[in-house]
Amino acid sequence: MRKALSATVALLLPVAALATGMGVEDTPLRPSELKLMQRIAGVDPAFRYGERVKRYYRTHPNTKNRIPLRVEMVPPQQNGLYFGEYRSYVMTIDEPAGTVTYEYDAGTAKRGRGTILVTPGDVVKTEYRCGVSSCGMQVERSGRLLAGHAWN
Description:
Elements: H1 2-19, E1 22-28, H2 31-43, E2 52-59, E3 66-74, E4 77-78, E5 81-82, E6 88-94, E7 99-105, E8 111-118, E9 123-130, E10 135-141, E11 144-151
Antiparallel strand pairs: 1-2, 2-3, 4-5, 6-7, 7-8, 8-9, 9-10, 10-11
């Protein structure tokens, strides 16, 4: 149900955007966004990201300036999979705030969602994930486990 809703929103948002002064463009990561991704990958070898993003924006009716609304990663896909293992992978970037949110699904054996906060001194990752027989949550700071909990 959740995947169907996400797919529907992904298809309808660009159409609705054009009708209401909103728009979307597919662009490469900006240097500051790439730096953010590299900083996260430097402390988390499992972190995956693509080189392109969709930028959703609204056009101001008077000034015609673009007002950013959402930056969504366009992950590489091959043979129907993202990064060779995920059936779905969604990531949004708020580079000025240093925040990345993501959700992935590799089937019943591996799925989850999380938030990463990048500060001048640390990279803090909070992730909730499930496998075949259990789920868990963990918090890492610059690659070191701070807290974790698993349950069946």
